[in-house]
Amino acid sequence: MYSVVISGTGLYQPPHVITNTELVEAFNAYADLQNAKNADAIAAGTHAALTHSSVEFIEKASGIKQRYVIEKSGVLDPNRMYPRFTERPDDQLSLMAEIGVDACKKALAAAGKQASDVDAIFCASANMQRAYPAMAVEIQAALGAGGYGFDMNVACSSATFALEQAFNAVRSGASRCVLVVNPEITSAHLEWRDRDCHFIFGDVCTALVVERADLAVSADQWEVLGTRLATQFSNNIRNNFGFMNRAEDSDPLARDKTFRQEGRKVFKEVVPIAAAHIEGHLAALAHSPTEVRRFWLHQANLGMNQLVIKKLVGEAAAAGSDIAPLILDTYANTASAGSIIAFHEHRADLKSGDLGVICSFGAGYSVGSVVVKKR
Ligand code: CO8
Fold first, then answer.
1. Domain that holds residue 137
2. Taking the CB of residue 333, how many other CB atoms lie within 10 A of it?
3. Per residue of the chain (375 residues), what is the pLDDT tens digit?
4. Does residue 248 sit in the same domain as residue 360?
5. Quick one: which of 375, 369, 14 has its CA closest to 167?
6. How close is the Cα of 264 to the center of ligand 1, in Å?
7. What is residue 352's DSSP assignment?
8. Same domain, residue pair 244 and 338
9. In angstroms, rounded to a whole number, what is the distance separating the alpha carbons of residues 164 and 203?
10. 278: Cβ below 6 Å to ligand 1?
11. Which terminus of the chain is more exposed, N or C, with fewer CB under 10 A?
């Protein structure tokens, strides 16, 4: 078995920011328009009026202050409430591949590698732009990489689940260098017209280079000590959009064809699962949570991360502090990319020998952890 390192990361950051104030203004304008349109039915008691959203609620309930998006005007148009993307011809790079290529190039540059060094690409995301050909293969072609690529989806845990595949491919000797890429265009499958969730997500793309330690040249290398994945079925986070919709004669615009969740249940159920998962994984590697210098946790909710950290290392520590940095205040929930953004932005101060845990949790339910040590 070969020793494996993460030797570079890359981040594509979309050009537009939507603040909570802008978001709430657009939502409230949409609600007023809908309520005016349905005024008679609302007065007759046959239609429920829409209630305003609030910046205070969003910041208190989630910790999110803003999000990045690829296209902003459509999202903030109260007569539309979703992004405006132009359909591209088949011979043009697709949007998802475009942001994937950007993040991959940055990760390769950070690792001091060329596309020709790469022999596998795993494109792991909560939603794919199309069924086939795989986004990973399109990214492979655009980069000029060899080997093979495939797409995979484990919702918010896609990145950590892909990291395990990369770890296994490299340590077994099957691959020398693998790119894991997480293009998350959440704005296209978030229901911006639903007050309960309109504030949750943002767009981004992350990439990581995973390679054999003996071939790595980067000054910043993180040895992968182990990975652990787990799933447990739940309907509490669900999106029914799919290729069967047409054959089922279902409404393509129905509420269940975009993201929906029972947020409070998710919060309650996932926190203990995630904490126990990390603790069990560390124990299997003969480590304890108090030995860990940093946790790069999934970025869905500030309170959730604080509870996970409290369960792991006690009351004194809190997320947002040094032990578990928060990025969701600026990026919001970016599905599978959240823990990777945290790792990308908050690792430069760690020293050789320091232990860290990348951990994601979300729909499925799914939870994935990757234990790393700074070389
Ligand atoms: N403004 C004002 N009030 C509001 C708003 C709003 N925008 N929204 C809800 N309220 C009201 C509610 O109506 C409710 O009122 P009442 O008490 O009168 O009924 C009250 O506020 C409280 O509502 P909640 O119970 O819903 O509020 P919570 O405190 O539970 O906070 C959260 C809601 C923030 C959603 C919280 O529950 C949470 O973050 N939970 C965890 C969610 C989570 O981790 N989900 C994982 C999702 S990621 C994933 O795996 C999916 C991947 C797929 C990607 C999809 C991309 C699109």
1. 4-15+87-215
2. 26
3. 999 999 999 999 999 999 999 999 999 999 999 999 999 999 999 999 999 999 999 999 999 999 999 999 999 999 999 999 999 999 999 999 999 999 999 999 999 999 999 999 999 999 999 999 999 999 999 999 999 999 999 999 999 999 999 999 999 999 999 999 999 999 999 999 999 999 999 999 999 999 999 999 999 999 999 999 999 999 999 999 999 999 999 998 999 999 999 999 999 999 999 999 999 999 999 999 999 999 999 999 999 999 999 999 987 766 557 999 999 999 999 999 999 999 999 999 999 999 999 999 999 999 999 999 999
4. yes
5. 369
6. 7
7. T
8. yes
9. 24
10. no
11. N
In this structure, is residue 73 part of a structural domain?
A: no
Q: What DSSP assignment string belongs to 215-271?
A: G---SS-EEEEEEEEEE---SSEE---STTTTTTT--TTSGGGS-EE-HHHHHHHHH
Domain finish residue from 174, 189, 215: 215
- Distance, CA 80 to ligand 1 centroid (Å)? 22
Judge if 243 and 289 occupy the same domain: yes
What total number of domains does the chain contain?
Answer: 3
CATH number at residue 363: 3.40.47.10
Ligand 1 probe mutation, 57, 157, 182, 262, most atoms within 8 A of CB = 57
pTM: 0.96
Query: What is the per-residue burial (b if ≥16 Cβ within 10 Å, else e) of 268-277?
Result: eebbebbbeb
Same domain, 118 and 48: no
Substitution candidate for ligand 1 out of 160, 203, 236, 266 with most atoms within 8 A of CB:
266
162, 228: one domain: no
